[in-house]
Amino acid sequence: MSPVVGKPVNRVDGPDKVTGTGRYCGEIVLPGLAYGLIVGAAVANGRVVSIDETAARAAGGVFGIMTHRNTPKVANQPRLIPSLAGQPAPGESFFPMQDDVVHYWGQPVALVVADSEEAAAHAAALLDITYEPGVPVATIADGRASATQAKTLFGGLMPATDERGDVEGALAAAEVTVDATYHFAANHHNPLETSVTTAQWDGDRVTLWDSTMGVRASQLTVASLLGIPLSDVRVITHFVGGGFGSKAMVWPHVTLAAMAARHVGRPVRLALTRPQSFTSNGHREEQEQRITLGAGRDGRLTAIRHRKLSVTSPFDDWAEPATGVSTQIYGCDNYLGDHQLIHGNTMTPTFTRAPGESLGSFTLETAMDRLAYELGMDPIELRIMNHPPVDNHGNPWSSDGMADCLRRGADLFGWAGRDPTPGTRQEGNDLIGTGVAGAGYPVAFMMPVQHARARIFHDGSVVIQTSAQEFGIGVTTSMSQVGADGLGVDMDVLRFEAGDTDLPNTTSAVGSMGATMQSSAVHNAATTLRNDLIAHAVNDGKSPLHGLSPSSVKVADGRMTSTLDPSIGESYADLLQRNRLLDMEALGSWTPPGMDTPHGLLTFGAQFAEVAVDKDLGLVRVRRMTGVFAPGRVLNPKLARSQLLGGMLWGLGQALLEGNQIDRQSGRWALNNLGEYLVPVHADIPDIQVDFVEVEDDVVGPLGVKGVGEVGQVGAAAAIANAVFHATGRRMNELPMTAEVVMNGGGPG
Amino acid sequence: MTMRPITFFRAGSIDEAVAAVSSHPDSAFLAGGTTEIDLLRLNVVQPTLLVDVNDLPLTYLEDVDDGGVRIGAMARMSDVARAPRIVERYPGMSQALLLGASEQLRNMASMGGNMCQRTRCSYFRDGQSPCNKREPGSGCSALTGINRGHAVLGTSEQCIATHPSDVAVALVALDAMIRTIGPDGTNAIPIERFFLRPADTPSIEHPLAHGELIVAIDVPALPVARTSRYVKHRDRASYEFALVSVFSAMRVDDAGNVAELRLALGGVGTVPWRAHRAEEALIGRPATPENFAAAADAEFADARTTPMNEFMVTFAKRAIVRELSEVTS
Questions:
Q1: Which part of the chain is the Aldehyde oxidase/xanthine dehydrogenase a/b hammerhead domain (chain A) (predicted)?
Q2: Band (B1; pLDDT cuts 50, 70, 90)
Q3: Residue B251 lies in a domain
Q4: Contact check, Cβ <8 Å, A681/B239
Q5: Is A590 left (phi over 0), alpha (psi -120 to 50) or beta?
Q6: Which of A403, A437, B201, B235 has the fewest CB atoms within 10 Å, counting from its CB?
Q7: Of A590, A618, A645, which marks where a domain is finished?
Q8: Is residue A126 in a domain?
Q9: How close B318 comes to chain A (CA, Å)?
């Protein structure tokens, strides 16, 4: 048997998904199940004056109505910290229905529980709620004057400013400068499955089936808010229909489901409707970014100043950190990155795929393209020249690959011989252009120790367990591969179990860290069990392997053999049965190196795009894309390709289609459904090529796995914008690049 | 999303359907339901009785004596789009149908229902913003709100909601006739009189009595329509409403002058927009890009824009000039 890690194995849960036997959290059926529906505020700022429940209660089938008047007070409101940190991780440090104040449109003001979804919806519509409305401030246009410099982001976890050298002096002295300002519309995640929680109490203990990216985060947050022991909260999640960051943090509806179940004395399923998913689990915030580059005529960067202004909620200093890549992907002695915030009438924004760095990199990578034109240099060579062997602290990369990604991509895409002159290629009504961008995404070691358990039964079958759930990316498959290789068994005898807080801890699968964390813990559990079994055999007088050194025993297909004489050996099952052991198990742990590890930690890539721009109408269509990435060891190239391809399509959507605005009069999101919040459809999706550059990394875990969840999106929109410039000669300063943006010359910048 | 108790009645005949709706003040017909069910769930329309007309024998397509086609009101959009007599005689209409919605929706949606399709204005559809179309007298949130996709032609101080249909654009160009049966008997309404501009009563979109049922759409014979075309420009490549769409059927005589022209626009008007001014500006004149541009200017001379949708005027004019130029060449 050859190793399965690195093989394009099909998804082991594919049949469950396509036949519908896999149960998502909104499909858990429990005796006496009741259905909850949140009623969101119809104003964005103000106060609930009255709630008349008479008609709603009379509607029939209603088990209970919760409002600020009868909702239990939360015990401990945790502060906002990314779920990757392994602590309680509320999406916002605010819990609704504790008083009558409305901070944002759609904020839960009531929760109706009834005997069917329809009855709950009917009763909810009959609630007569009156408000004392205030004037909402929810946009940059309305809040600009109140912007303040943020000190820290993420509840103090990250500094909001990153400064080194003398950026102003270096800009003043620079031979060449580029200065650009961008406006980016807000984005919403829109996974196919809107968030849903089913809650069931048994005495003092509650079980939640929660569509989350981290069962542990849900457990920690709900236990804190309810003020009950962690051991009394169990969270189970076997299938999740996409997250993209919307399920990375724990939003109020999860705890409200538990409160509602206790309120009505029945299990309760609380699902967000599609419109509610625009007001209940965060968003990528509306933002402006300005970047100023200084460089020598030779192309060497001498200064980068990168500033961001964005809108956050009244209660949290949230900004997607936009400067984590721009501070280090290119070497530059003088750097300033900072974040300004407007506190407005929105909920707290949140992680949205490639958080921070997708737009931060858009800013940087389109500015680098401007610089290349300014200097008359090839944009690939400019990037390679400026990409350093060390990070901004002088630490060597744990693994690099940036230059190789750019070069491999250039080969695959056919970059050589490109005429850089903008606006010179036309086919019919279309102007044709090509563009490139670099990509990087941080590897963030903020998580605690990770655990997994490997267990083998005396018939040779194996179960490997860890808590963090599958949420669509394929970990059930890739961890089966890792476990099989680690233990030396065939994948067919192994079952990977996850998505349950009763299992050994792994942290939320967020921040492109899921595969790294889980594979490290699973590998260590599997190899620990293998070593235990080998030790048992060589110490067992009845084993044919007795007396051998453990290092001269190898395992394949569940059979231990001597490396000196392959005819000598026995199976795990033989060993266990002979010794009347029904099973053996081992716990594997992985301690991440920590944030202060002396290594540069980015996953690198390169993006290429070719566009056709309607010369009169400004409509942009992407003709082809090439992405090359260096994510360390690739556990399963089929799954990794899907992740990266999906990320590139997110970049396409972000570039051309996705954007939401808040209506300035009402403070309401203008778009709240998939008919009008546009994401790419198949007809928008061109030929996409994904390839890998192999890099070895012995820092990021025993298998050297970096993530592929986000980096596929980083740089994709920038490559498209650079291609639009190449096609039209117009710089794009606004996303999405809609027809009028292109027609009118690219936006405000 | 809301739900309300509702009475459902499946009509077995046209007379039964008309009687059921006209005798009940809060009733509505239900055809394909592809818009109406959404609006029910969004609390935008609130009938207490739904009269299903899907069983009525109205799915036919048949020739009418002068070489035109009569389309039964319950004919599905996907069937009409692929019917040989439509593809041959009115290719632009077939194209308009196929560029609307998605195949799944077209398989459900009926031709009569499409004529009653409601606007996508988000303030109309949210069920709670001030909206004169949904709640007469409450005001128009779109005038100063998010109005990138709102109409620039046929608007009023009361409403700037865009009419969303594609096929209706073709039908106004073709001078179709809407045939109805109502409590007062049969009626035939020229299609341009069927779509009412908002003016002071944006809630009244059609001259239909309560209980008056569309039973057929007559498309008259029109030889020039055999080379008609429909082009739809939109942000994404499929499954989206038009930014601007153009239906054209043009004949240029041997001298190079426009002899016949049918031109209509989608995405820009409060109703499916027949470009009469552009047609008049071009008939009898040389078919040149300069004249096409002048005709497009004439059509949009009274356009009323907002900062968000003013690009639509330039966009639409360019789309018209391009389309007529391509037809000519």
A1: 19-135
A2: low
A3: yes
A4: yes
A5: beta
A6: B201
A7: A590
A8: yes
A9: 7
Supply the range of the domain harboring residue A59. 32-135+192-242+247-278
Q: What is the CATH number of the domain that holds B317?
A: 3.30.390.50
Q: Which residues fall within 8 angstroms of residue A330, CB to CB, at 6 or more apart?
A: A301, A304, A364, A368, A383, A386, A387, A388
> How many domains does one find in chain B?
1
- The residues on A that touch B, with CB distances below 8 Å, are 42, 117-119, 121-122, 124-125, 273, 275, 429, 616-619, 621, 656-657, 661, 663-666, 668, 670-672, 675-676, 678, 680-684, 738-740, 743-744
The CA-CA-CA angle for residues A306, A310, A316, to 5°, reads: 120
CATH number of domain containing A318: 3.30.365.10
Q: Which domain holds residue B308?
A: 225-328
- Is A372 inside any structural domain? yes
CB atoms A619 and B235 under 8 Å:
yes
* A305 falls within a domain: yes
Residue of chain A minimizing CA distance to B123: A670
The answer to whether the Cβ–Cβ distance between B141 and A657 falls below 8 Å is: no
**In this complex, do B311 and A670 lie within 8 Å of one another by their Cβ atoms?**
no
- Side chain identity at A32, as an amino acid letter? G
Q: Using CA atoms, how far apart are residues B222 and B249, in angstroms rounded to an integer?
A: 10
* Structural domain contains residue B278: yes
Percent of the residues in chain A that have a pLDDT greater than 90, as a whole number: 96
Residue type, A735: L
Which of B1, B318, B319 has its CB closest to that of A273?
A: B1
Contact between chains at A617 and B319 (C-beta distance less than 8 A): yes
Whether residues A371 and A513 share a domain: the answer is no
Is residue B307 domain-resident? yes
Q: Are residues A107 and A175 in the same domain?
A: no
Q: By the 8 A CB rule, do A652 and B236 touch?
A: no
Residues in chain A: 749
What tens digit of pLDDT does each residue of A574-621 get? 999 999 999 999 999 999 998 889 999 999 999 999 999 999 999 999
